[in-house]
């Protein structure tokens, strides 16, 4: 078994956006779920559809939540990379490792990402969004779909995740799951991830991937 494909969650892993989502989901939680403490953390890793159907049964409320979220993503959010992420992904690609984004975000969100980062798609062989799978994290469907689109077995893939639901999904998919401490902190992530890193600064490709095997192909 050789690990030769990398599956990256988007927010809090590739892009430093999760703390910004805490702002908008904090606003939404305060308005619609004032009795729920830390609503922003509660919904981490879920698709928007899952969040809406689970926590907003009223149709008018769902429409308002979507409007608030999309306005924030388009007009307030800053799309910057997690420390070391861009150079790490480029290094992996130069070494022959396949790369994919596997996100709970939808295509509307990806349009905003592309509008702010023109070369974003060039970093990845494929991008899995919420529209491509029926079940949300912590179910493993999205990571299994990512492996399928790359033409790889699950044991050939490494997952990079920050959310607890995402880490559980990666583990359920049977993939080595690296947890980033960017959102929930090292202690909580370490309890369920295979390995914990703070960011990608100084992380060598050989730490998680079989580079020699790739170079022999």
Q: What does it look like?
A:
The protein is α/β, with parallel strands linked by helices and 217 residues long. It is built from ten helices and six strands; from the N terminus they run βαααααβαβαβαβαβα. A six-stranded parallel β-sheet has the order 3-2-1-4-5-6. The radius of gyration is 17 Å and the shape is globular. The two termini are 14 Å apart. The model has no long low-confidence stretch (mean pLDDT 95).
**What class would the helix/strand composition place it in?**
alpha/beta
Radius of gyration: 17 Å
As a percent range, the share of strand residues is 5-15%
**Uncertain stretches:** none
- How can the largest sheet be summarized? 6 strands, parallel
Instruction: Let me know the number of strands.
Output: 6
Query: Total number of helical segments?
Result: 10
- CA-based shape: globular
With strands numbered from the N-terminus, the spatial order across the biggest sheet is 3-2-1-4-5-6
Helix content: 40-55%
Secondary-structure element order, N to C: EHHHHHEHEHEHEHEH
Distance between the termini: 14 Å
Mean pLDDT across all amino acids: 95
